[in-house]
Amino acid sequence: MSEEYDVEFVERDDHEARFLVRGVTPAFANGIRRAMLADVPTMAIDTVRFVENSSVMFDEQLALRLGLVPLTTPPEGEFDEDDVVTLSIDVEGPATAYSGDLESSDELVQPAEENVPIIDLKDGQRLEAEADATLGRGKNHAKHQGGVAVGYRHLQRVEVVGDVPEFEEREAQIVRGVIEDDGELVPTSEFDHDLANRYPDQEVAVEDVPNAFVFHVETDGSFTVEELVTRAADTIEARATELEDAVQL
């Protein structure tokens, strides 16, 4: 996209971040949120072939659990949506089978987390299976949603407008997200979401900053927050290009 936007991270980790985007409309902000949830392809187990399952769970239940194990997704261009990666698991009790027990045929597609429990196997029980992982989109199945928690709020600006009258008890003033105080971005968790804690003896006014939104994004480990946001923006650009080409026909 040719237009530049002002982006500033408030909190940042590989799989969870909070960042401010200025210069976007509410419609665009919601479009990015929806694209992160529905349009970014991720790898997930689609088909399971059981060699042995003597656990207390039916094959269908275990297949569902395996399908929900987050898998790392290769860089764009490395895989087509009809490519298949095979993973295998072979665990004998007494033991707990974890996602880390899955062995992949491709180093680019691995369990995103190793400690996701699949089944607790008792003495004499065994789980041996092969599974096929494919690319898919969240709009078709939730197991392909790379963003497990994606949302946004208006950035709120706080200004001191006066002092609390003497002997008047200050009531709680709850805000959530991020506030802008004299140009500084402050997560509301730092003052327990109550402006009375940050400004104990002052009256304040709160207003939404136009076209400024604070996104809170958490991924399932399929990729980093930066990758998820970038790929979501790419899907919007691709759809816009398709629409432009169609209109010009």
Task: Using the CA coordinates, give the radius of gyration.
Answer: 24 Å
- Shape descriptor reads flat
What percentage of the residues does DSSP assign to strands (E)? Answer: 35-45%
Helical content stands at 10-25%
- From N to C, what is the helix and strand string? EEHEHEEEEEEEEHEH
What structural class do you assign from the helix and strand content? alpha+beta
Uncertain runs: none
CATH-defined fold name of the largest domain = Gyrase A, domain 2
Give the mean pLDDT.
Answer: 89
Question: What is the number of helices?
Answer: 4
CATH architecture label of the largest domain? 2-Layer Sandwich
Domain module tally = 2
Main sheet: strand order: 1-2-12-9-10-11
Question: What labels would you give this structure?
Answer:
Gyrase A, domain 2, alpha+beta, 249 residues, six-stranded mixed beta sheet, 12 strands, RNA Polymerase Alpha Subunit, Chain A, domain 2, 2 domains, flat, four-stranded antiparallel beta sheet, single chain, 20% helix
